[in-house]
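[Discussion] Sanity-checking designs against the backbone

I'm trying to build intuition for which residues belong where. Below is a structure token string of 44 positions. I'd appreciate it if someone posts a full sequence so I can compare it with mine line by line.
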């Protein structure tokens, strides 16, 4: 019983970490895009 709870908690934590990585990556892409727009570079 407690093993299931622990594994569920670990899966949840891993999911949160992956989501955080995705969010950071997306934010970086958006920041790069806005920076390129402001600098007048063409976004490919």
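Best answer:
Here's mine. Compare freely.
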């Amino acid at each position: 019983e407690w093993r299931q709870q622990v594994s569920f908690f670990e899966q949840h934590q891993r999911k949160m970490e992956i989501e955080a990585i995705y969010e950071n990556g997306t934010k970086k892409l958006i920041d790069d895009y806005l920076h390129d727009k402001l600098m007048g570079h063409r976004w490919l």
